[in-house]
Amino acid sequence: MHDDIISKLTEIFVRFPGIGPKQARRFVYFLLAQPQGSLQNFAKLIAELKTDIVQCERCTRFFILGVKRFPLCDLCADPNRDNSLLMIVEKDIDLNNIRKLGVYNGQYAVLGGLVPILEKNLEGRIRQTALVKNIEHRLAEHSLKEIIVALSVTREGDNTVDYLKVLLQPYETKGVKISIFGRGLSSGTEIEYTDSDTIKNALLNRH
Amino acid sequence: MHDDIISKLTEIFVRFPGIGPKQARRFVYFLLAQPQGSLQNFAKLIAELKTDIVQCERCTRFFILGVKRFPLCDLCADPNRDNSLLMIVEKDIDLNNIRKLGVYNGQYAVLGGLVPILEKNLEGRIRQTALVKNIEHRLAEHSLKEIIVALSVTREGDNTVDYLKVLLQPYETKGVKISIFGRGLSSGTEIEYTDSDTIKNALLNRH
Amino acid sequence: MHDDIISKLTEIFVRFPGIGPKQARRFVYFLLAQPQGSLQNFAKLIAELKTDIVQCERCTRFFILGVKRFPLCDLCADPNRDNSLLMIVEKDIDLNNIRKLGVYNGQYAVLGGLVPILEKNLEGRIRQTALVKNIEHRLAEHSLKEIIVALSVTREGDNTVDYLKVLLQPYETKGVKISIFGRGLSSGTEIEYTDSDTIKNALLNRH
Amino acid sequence: MHDDIISKLTEIFVRFPGIGPKQARRFVYFLLAQPQGSLQNFAKLIAELKTDIVQCERCTRFFILGVKRFPLCDLCADPNRDNSLLMIVEKDIDLNNIRKLGVYNGQYAVLGGLVPILEKNLEGRIRQTALVKNIEHRLAEHSLKEIIVALSVTREGDNTVDYLKVLLQPYETKGVKISIFGRGLSSGTEIEYTDSDTIKNALLNRH
Question: pTM, whole model, 2 decimals?
Fold first, then answer.
């Protein structure tokens, strides 16, 4: 029973973010209840996903092929964005979340992951080569003034911040400001239940 | 932006059971991060799902093509099962859950859904024609003695039980017993927090 | 700081069912914000609680002193209840939950607890002496016909059922029926997610 | 039944923070199961709570009577604390949470509440008179340099910040800095799920 098509598809869905074995199996039965035409269409979209969507050579985010200035995405190719600012984010969804707020007009670099504690082999985890190339380009072509690190406040996020501080040190020497997203009270935070790190940061960053 | 491939795939995943727009979008970015070979394989499995898996002509459950006695599934074709018992379940997953317990050796009929309150057009919701055909066959070929209704205890489940009682009435007249899954305290039930229906059933069905 | 009045009261509230140290402390500050008159009233009610409320000599439930037939509670003293039925429950709240449904008109016995797995010294845990006395009285005075065990379906609940079966065996020999609350699907149960014990009971107790 | 002692005590417990009717009733039955001596002790502590604990004349926090410099609490009476800093918090528990971190050595003022949206009558809600008196004292006696507003980031918290900005304006004119707890990413914040206000603040307060 373990190598039938239901089990194979269940095993694939189990690897999807946030999906357990029970829900994975429900997905397969959900698909079984769809008309064959819908499944063909779904399969076609999946097979074509990575031919229609490519990675930007500069910021490494995914974008829809067909925009004019391939191999750059619409953000990296946009002459109206502020090329003196570069924001480092973990993933495309973070970039999209920040982008839609409309409060930042600079450029981005997508790391593609975080640096796990005690991890030695980093290139498989974060896109360091692309990041360095992105920075070097912006230093040469544009007057890059600030790199903003915008990572989640988790153990791996903090570890990545520490790693990036060392990695970006040479650019700081060359006059590029390295800044970190401000820490403090976030929306909904109640003082009574706030951990000590957040209180310390809120006190330190009071204004 | 609404007709690009990311949005199209997101819209498909949103229809999956229990998936909201945010998680649907995460699924697409998760797929983007997979190697193209994995996506091709995934797409192939989806496209072939319904050619490898067919619906049993008798009980309407899905099964893997390749067993000997097509168009019957391995359960309906099994001469060692007790053909005097027929259990009506809502869906394949319910059947699998009950089957793996090994406490029931009769046959099954999968309804494919429940009867919503106030719904008129039922054939789109439950597989009534197939159910009746299944029962008629078992009455003619085998000595069907009991039909067991094994549905969830929800508003729609109870409504379906009421509907089936009327539908199955003629068979009761012919001597087939129509029984319902027993109601009472289920595992983990605490008397302090138990609703009145369950207490009444537990009192009524005490033994 | 550990023996001040705030800490002392916090330590008392921490023992309340479901209350952790943080909420216990919030309770104390909540009390500090109340007018002194309210606190005096609250303190008086607590001090008088057990002089106003006594335990019924027969069923051992708590009741408000002042009813006519002390030392019996209003249920045990009620001539209109069916004295041929005796229901064993774990605690007063369970009794109240069942009583308000109005589907049972017999008498009760409150155990006061459950029998933990591997526990030897039971009198501290369940009110066995009072239970036996209650049964003996009803056998002598009334024609007790059935003892209904109405306990939660938990490991300790099931252990207590096993214990009571042995304890009540002599009465079964004398013709008293010993019954257990019916097991099966309770309200809201979905077949897909139901554990094997409940499915087995639902199948066994189908009707 | 509604005016018996069980109902009266249940009604009192229902007003405790975070307690519903069911848990309130469980509290009463929990108390019924305690020895009378424990209840007497509990009642005594409640009755004496507000004679042992008094409110500091200056910061309005509650403290245990018996410290040397009544009517001031141990914090307000401590000559080693930095009297140039005054932190405004909502309640005692917030003060204790911040205090135990050991990162702030200034003085406090407890508001006793927040300013609800659209509320006119404020003295019942926040201890404004005491706050002003506290500030005036510290301006006169000590060289007060900064007032730090440390409130929860909720609608009422933000409304209170706005209210305090107007109230404290005259002191700002006199050279006292009015600062607000820093806003930004708090511990555990994931960029993907962060609301726009927090992202904006994190970007604005980057460093």
Answer: 0.75
Q: According to the 3-state scheme, what is the secondary structure of B119-183?
A: CCCCCCCCCHHHHHHHHHHHHHHCCCCEEEECCCCCHHHHHHHHHHHHHHHHHHHCCCEEEECCE
Facing residue for C188 by CB, picked from B153, B179, B187:
B153
Q: Are residues B88 and B171 in the same domain?
A: yes
CB contact under 8 A, A94 and D192: yes
Q: Give the CATH number for residue C27.
A: 1.10.8.420
| Number of structural domains chain C divides into | 2
Q: CB A44 to CB B43 under 8 A?
A: yes
Query: Does A207 sit within 8 Å of D180, measured CB to CB?
Result: yes
Q: Mind listing the pLDDT tens digit for each residue in C187-199?
A: 999 998 899 999 9
Q: What is the pLDDT of residues A39-49, one digit of tens each?
A: 999 999 999 99
What is the average per-residue pLDDT within C105-112? 96
ipTM above 0.90, yes or no: no
Considering the domain architecture, whether residues C35 and C124 belong to the same structural domain is answered as: no
Closest-CA distance, D162 to chain A, in angstroms, reads 14
Using DSSP bridges, classify how beta strands B53-55 and B62-64 pair: parallel, antiparallel or unpaired: antiparallel
At residue C123, the pLDDT reads: 66
Q: pLDDT tens digit string along C118-133? A: 877 776 789 999 999 9
